[in-house]
Amino acid sequence: MADLDVLAPGDHICWAVDADDDFELTAKRCLVEGSRVGDKVLYVGPAASLPGSPLSAVAVKAFDPGPALTGPAGVDDMLQVFRLEATSATDDGFRALRVVADMDWMAGLATNDELTAFELRLDAVADEVGAVVICAYRATTFPAGEVARVNTVHSQTFGQPDDLGFRVCSDGPQCWDVTGEVDCFNAEAFGLVLASAASSGTVRVRLDRLEFIDVAGMRAIAAAAEAGAVARMSLESPSETFARCWALLGYEALAPKVELVR
């Protein structure tokens, strides 16, 4: 659980905003605290919320990225802008870039799968550039199930979103750290997240903090590797039990792209 008054570079927070929460008061406090500790603070939200907003008044820059989000190319461009803003912040002597994003700006622009994939990539960028990113999902806009999905690819949580039991977060270039438990109840969601993480080249998946995984979870790993464009998926630090079950279930042959690194 995140404390919005004490955030460090690289933190990526999923904020579940209930209908009766005072979003503007809490978000303003977070931006003001960011300025106090030396961060360059940005506010991202839907265009209609920007004029006259106390968040726009506090932030160095406030904008709606929605018009630029047109397919994969738009996502790439937006993440590149994010990198440039973070680089500019450190070059100008700020501690880090801090962004509070009212995710209503993305409502209707992406499916839940696309939104989760976007947040996964954003987590990697936040980790890469050492930015603080708070993504606010309003209960009045996003169903609880959708917020639960995107919560799985944030390193921290604020508020009370439903918990699917696992997280997949960036641990360096093309490296993902899996925590929690994966079983038949959440294996489908886990597989979709892992498939989003799989890209060209070698993807590293760290399992040393994974507490439990059943056959459905292993099946999801194999399917994600075979369905994605990844050349190889390295599963690092699997438990003895995982390695034994993986071999007994025949996944060494069924999932040739997957390599266990012990």
Structure description:
This protein folds into two domains: 12-163, P-loop containing nucleotide triphosphate hydrolases (Rossmann fold); 167-261, STAS domain (Transcription Regulator spoIIAA), CATH 3.30.750. 39% of the residues lie in helices and 23% in strands. It contains nine helices and twelve strands. It has helices spanning 23-36, 54-58, 71-91, 112-129, 144-151, 187-197, 215-227, 240-248, 251-254; strands spanning 12-17, 40-44, 61-63, 97-102, 132-138, 156-158, 166-170, 175-182, 202-206, 210-213, 232-236, 258-261. Strand 4 (97-102), helix 4 (112-129) and strand 5 form a beta-alpha-beta unit. The longest helix is centred in the first third of the chain and has 21 residues, at 71-91. The chain is elongated, with a radius of gyration of 19 Å. The model has no long low-confidence stretch (mean pLDDT 94).
The named CATH superfamily of the largest domain: P-loop containing nucleotide triphosphate hydrolases
Just give the CATH class of the largest domain.
Alpha Beta
- Unreliable stretches: none
Please outline the major beta sheet.
Answer: 6 strands, parallel
Average pLDDT level: 94
Secondary-structure arrangement, i.e. CATH architecture of the largest domain: 3-Layer(aba) Sandwich
- Measured distance between first and last alpha carbons: 31 Å
Class from helix and strand fractions: alpha/beta
* Envelope shape: elongated
How many helices? The count is 9
